[in-house]
Amino acid sequence: MDKTVNPAATEQDIEVRNPADGRQVGRVPDNPGAVVAAEVGQLRAAQADWEACGVRERAQWLLRWQDWLIDNAARLTDVVQSETGKTRFDAEIEVPAAIDLAKYWARNAPRFLADERPAPHSPIGRMKRLITVFRPYPLVGIITPWNLPLLNPCFDAFAALLAGAAVLVKPSEITPLSAVELACGWAEIGAPPVFTVVTGRADTGRAVVDQVDFVQFTGSTKTGREIAAACGAALTPCSLELGGKDPAIVLADADVERAAAGIAYGGLFNSGQVCISVERVYVEAPIYTRFVASLTEQVEKLRQGQDGRGFDYDIGAMATATQRDIVQRHVAEAVARGARIMTGGNATGNFFEPTVLVDVEHSMSCVTEETFGPTIPVIEVADEDEAVRLANDSSYGLSATVWTGDRQRGEHIARRLEVGAVNINDAFANLVNFALPMGGWKDSGIGARWGGAAGIRKYCRQQAITVPRGPELTREPLWYPASRTRSRLVTTLMRAVDARGLRKLPFRPRGGR
Question: Which of 231, 238, 275, 366 is catalytic?
Fold first, then answer.
């Protein structure tokens, strides 16, 4: 297991710095493939016993881990802040969201993983008892991004562990400390050695992909494509949550103040560094001016700075200078093409001011490319149809929001949008409703997390078992040697059961129906 500080530091080790002030807050190893292989060997050796102990015992271990998260919440939030530069408000949600998810899986996993006994589809099938068994992939590899460094590993590790898999997490090299703390917590509660965190850069991630039985990746579309190609070559199943460019549609009958407040939060939480951030807004013409005024006023009031534990600021730093530069480029390119900045638009260090853009054209980079930053471009549209058309005119399809005074109309529009999730009159609501799947369409990924039973069964291989009912014949009718009589008996019976009308008969009049 990695340590936050490596006493035998080398030049290849990774320095972790607080992006808000540049201060070094930790150091972790850049583990080579040999270290990954050693960790994989230990995990595989422990996995069989973990699976054999049963889902209810595994759930008890998860709840002990939940206890540890609660007992260490303040310190863990400090760690999240230290490596991300988040505000306390943004950072403090990660532990509570993780304990909520732990409770959900612990409570429901025994039911979700229970054997299924489907009914035979025909009378002939009633001669067999049918069973579907859910058996885990032995080793699940989870590769996580830097935006939610504590919560992202929990999103997927909880379900995979409860399924009976061993889990190897490779966190982003930018924010590895929170994941390391999770591994320390798992060890501290005395849990079986089936959860490990290995830190490192891209080569470490490649080694993980090459050596596990299932890959769960959250990150950029570019890297996701590379992982999908590697998994395809090895026939390793994978699930990918990738980039987003989530639209918001604000209809003329919406509560303007609520819509503006919700979109400000949905677009700027964590400095806009969330896969399902609102990144483009389409507003019907009759309320466009009022909406822009309300949004601008609300964004102007937000406080930005380096936070401690005091909840003194609303918006923190960008996690990396690279990400800040992308935001700056999108804003500069928009302004160069005629867009106006209503508020914000400036960078200081790794901080970028929360920014509202108007007079935006749909072809601008701030609308077509993933920004992953604190910008909200707003576009006026004539009507609902234009809003839907523009919302769907994107290579991404992660989620969307619809703001309207008519919820039924909102649901109708939701069904027209080419995205994996739609929130009506709210932002991020699907993220905390684990009975719903969270997955992207188009370039936003393949597969989904959560979604009730599907969210844990994704980490399982389905096994079909048939068991005879009643007395067994010495020889089944279709076993060798070949027999015209037995063949005709079976196929005539199948025809009688499956065909329609007179076609059920072995012989029927010419031209019969």
Answer: 275
Amino acid sitting at position 380: E
The residues, ordered by sequence, that sit 6+ positions from 496 with a Cβ below 8 Å of its Cβ are 504, 505, 506
* Residue 242 neighbours by CB distance under 10 Å: 25
CA–CA gap between residue 72 and residue 177 (Å, rounded): 14
d(CA 27, CA 16): 6
Rounded CA-CA distance 32/40 in Å is 13
Sign of the CA dihedral 149, 155, 156, 157? positive
231 is annotated as an active-site residue: no
Strand pairing partners for 142?
169, 216
Nearest of 351, 367, 347 to residue 359 by alpha carbon? 367
Residue with tokens 């039924």: 408
Answer yes or no: is pLDDT of 2 > 50: no
SS (H, E, C) 103-129: HHHHHHHHHHCCCECCCCCCHHHHHEE
Write down the catalytic residue from 51, 94, 181, 241: 241
Q: How confident is the model at residue 509 (pLDDT cuts 50, 70, 90)?
A: low
Q: pLDDT above 90 covers what percent of the chain?
A: 94
Which residues, at least 6 apart from 97, have a Cβ–Cβ distance to it below 8 Å?
A: 151, 154, 432
With contact defined as beta carbons under 8 Å apart, do 434 and 227 qualify? no
Q: For this structure, is 361 an active site residue? A: no
